[in-house]
Specification:
The complex is a heterodimer. In chain A, the strands form two sheets. In chain A, strands 2, 4, 5, 6, 9, 10 and 11 form a seven-stranded mixed β-sheet that branches. In chain A, strands 1-3-8-7 form a four-stranded antiparallel β-sheet, with no helix packed on it. Chain A is mainly beta. In chain A, 0% of the residues lie in helices and 52% in strands. Chain A has no helices and eleven strands. Chain A is globular, with a radius of gyration of 13 Å. The N and C termini of chain A lie far apart (36 Å). Chain B starts with a strand and ends with a strand. By secondary structure, chain B is mainly β. In chain B, strands 2, 4, 5, 9, 10 and 11 form a six-stranded mixed β-sheet that branches. In chain B, strands 1-3-8-7-6 form a five-stranded antiparallel β-sheet, with no helix packed on it. The chains are: A mainly beta, B mainly beta. At the A-B interface, strand 5 and strand 10 of A face strand 4, strand 5 and strand 9 of B.
Chain lengths: 116, 111
């Protein structure tokens, strides 16, 4: 698989502020994704992070609220903007690694966000 | 109809028994199917992938796929208390690059 790190691992933020989450991978990856997991829920895909171009967002998620960057093959950031308590969630990046089994995705450890 | 459906459980089995977890999906052209294990407070861990009809075995785990009936299952033999976790079924629809996750089944293995 791959070693995936996320920073920060957790944070408590005030309403109206923004938080940028980083995802770093130690291998060449073909695809990078950002998910949200709300308390007691399954995973919901926010967007696919595309290298050097705008991310592809899923229905219900917009670039103004969740801007994403992916400047190279192994690094991406997700910003949660103008936060409200409803944004309290775990945010996870996942990757597909070049050369491994088809379509397999591996997850980072996640960022636990609490918005007060 | 949800795209990927699982019984949320909890499914409770005694230690040493076989745990059977089931998942159905709606997209007939789906090609790739996965089972993830998620311990409380941790991120999902990939434990099985399956692409063809039939069984795929890896240690105590067996994944079963039936595309005609649109279901995929996970069997855990000789269940251990350490297997207690939420198991997520994920499917890759035929026309997209993303995974669709079920709600997850909580498994409790009692000593």
């Amino acid at each position: 698989s791959a070693v995936i790190s996320q920073k920060p691992s957790r944070d408590i933020c005030q309403r109206g502020t923004s938080l940028t989450i980083q995802c770093q991978v130690d291998s060449q990856v073909t695809m990078m994704f950002w998910y949200r997991q709300q308390p007691g829920q399954s995973l919901t895909l926010i967007a696919t992070a595309n290298q050097g171009s705008e991310a592809t967002y899923e229905s219900g998620f917009v670039i103004d609220k969740f801007p994403i960057s992916r400047p190279n093959l192994t690094f991406s950031t997700l910003t949660v903007s103008n936060m409200s308590p409803e944004d309290s969630s775990i945010y996870l990046c996942s990757v597909e690694v070049a050369g491994l089994a088809k379509d397999e995705q591996f997850f980072g450890p996640g960022t636990r966000l609490t918005v007060l | 109809q949800k795209e990927v459906e699982q019984n949320s459980g909890p499914l409770s089995v005694p230690e040493g028994a076989i745990a059977s977890l089931n998942c159905t999906y709606s997209d007939r052209v789906s090609q790739s199917f996965f089972w993830y294990r998620q311990y409380s407070g941790k991120s999902p861990e990939l434990i099985m992938s399956i692409y063809s009809n039939g069984d795929k075995e890896d240690g105590r785990f067996t994944a079963q796929l039936n595309k005609a009936s649109q279901y995929v299952s996970l069997l855990i033999r000789d269940s251990q208390p350490s297997d207690s976790a939420t198991y997520l079924c994920a499917v890759k629809p035929g026309n997209t690059g993303k995974l669709i996750f079920g709600q997850g089944t909580t498994l409790q293995v009692k000593p």
